[in-house]
TrEMBL record:
PANTHER family: D-ISOMER SPECIFIC 2-HYDROXYACID DEHYDROGENASE FAMILY PROTEIN (AFU_ORTHOLOGUE AFUA_6G10090). It comes from the Bacteria. SUPFAM superfamilies: Formate/glycerate dehydrogenase catalytic domain-like, NAD(P)-binding Rossmann-fold domains. One of its GO terms (molecular function) is NAD binding. This is Glyoxylate reductase. Belongs to the D-isomer specific 2-hydroxyacid dehydrogenase family. The keyword Repressor does not apply. Keywords: NAD, Oxidoreductase. Residues 108-290 form the D-isomer specific 2-hydroxyacid dehydrogenase NAD-binding domain. Signal peptide: none annotated. Residues 5-322 form the D-isomer specific 2-hydroxyacid dehydrogenase catalytic domain.
Length: 338
């Protein structure tokens, strides 16, 4: 079966696929993302596509007449028209949890960096203020907080939220959370006290977002929720920027109504140097690096390739996100084998 791969993939899993499929491999991380027309030309004769960061156009889906399955090395599939793929009999598999550990690690790092004022302290050091103001000036002007005993509120208790909660047990923090799809009993199993959304914002010393972006969560939070936060609290967002109303979030942080924030996601990426939050000392901004670890590539390969091979062998893995496409997809697969 002709297979076009445009994702990062380890040598081991690439060789494993070559045992079963006729592979055309393009590594976007080394050569840059393909233009939509170039992706279409490369993929139009494929039965199988493995992708990661490419936006697969509707034209590509329609042009690839024999295509019956796409393995998308992402947690949330935002780069494919799922409805059209389903209509055309193209099964889509995602790779849930591929970067969960990486994002959870960064979330904890953000909490520590914010609480201990790491960035302002580094800036003061580089500006010569330690030498200028004396040995103890840094100590008295950059005092922060310990995590033990603090209240950490998690919005969203999926794979990443649960890993964050697990890590926080070692810090002896009280962890509260909100997720309409999780029961109190289930939350308690991973050390989270389930409360209302309002209580998370109002009670927490750290509010950390772990919410997928969809039609129900877009612009879900804004001034009303932020105003509930304590003045000494910190906001952490490593999920999706668009769950906040952008102008309300920026205005709120500019007014300095909370102790600080740490953000890894933005409404428009990449950012220009004039982004309004760059010059606020208590706001940490990183360039969407939550999932940028070498281990993530290994995770996504194992999840994605294993699921794909299972599907090709007649199984229906649980990470098929459009099960209504399965019947037609299998018909197309049978025709490709004929």
């Amino acid at each position: 079966m002709k297979t076009f791969i445009s994702s990062r993939i380890s040598d081991y899993w690439l060789e494993e696929l070559k045992k079963h499929l006729d592979v055309d491999f393009y590594d976007w991380s080394q050569e840059g993302l393909l233009e939509p027309k170039d992706f279409l030309e490369r993929a139009k004769d494929s039965q199988v596509i493995i992708t990661e960061s490419d936006m697969i156009s509707d034209d590509t889906l329609r042009a690839a007449k024999d295509l019956f399955v796409i393995a998308d090395f992402r947690g949330t599939v935002i780069n494919i028209n799922i409805d059209l793929a389903t209509e055309l009999g193209i099964v889509i598999m995602n790779t849930p949890g591929r970067n969960a550990d990486a994002v959870a690690d960064l979330t904890i790092a953000f909490m520590i960096m914010a609480a201990r004022k790491v960035i302002p302290a580094m800036d003061a050091l580089h500006e010569g203020l330690w030498a200028k103001n004396g040995r103890y000036w840094m100590y008295t002007n950059h005092q922060g907080y310990d995590l033990p005993g603090k209240v950490v509120g998690l919005i969203g208790l999926g794979a990443i939220g649960r890993l964050v909660a697990n890590r926080l047990q070692g810090f002896k923090a009280r962890v509260i959370g909100y997720d309409p799809f999780v029961s109190k009993e289930e939350a308690a199993q991973f050390g989270v006290e389930l409360v209302s959304q309002e209580e998370v914002f109002s009670q927490s010393d750290f509010v950390s977002l772990h919410v997928p972006l969809n039609e129900n969560t877009r612009d879900m939070y804004g001034k009303n929720e932020l105003e509930l936060m304590k003045p000494e609290a910190y906001l952490i967002n490593t999920s999706r920027a668009a769950v906040f109303v952008e102008n309300e979030l920026i205005e709120f942080l500019q007014q300095g109504k909370i102790a600080g924030a740490a953000l890894d996601v933005y409404h428009s990426e990449p950012l220009d140097t004039d982004y309004p939050l760059f010059n606020i000392p208590n706001v940490i901004c990183t360039p969407h690096i939550g999932g940028a670890t070498l281990d993530v590539v290994a995770h996504q390969c194992e999840i994605g390739v294993t699921s794909l091979l299972r599907f090709l062998n007649g199984e229906n893995p649980s990470n098929i996100i459009n099960p209504l496409a399965i019947e037609k997809s299998r018909q197309k697969m049978s025709q490709s084998k004929a």
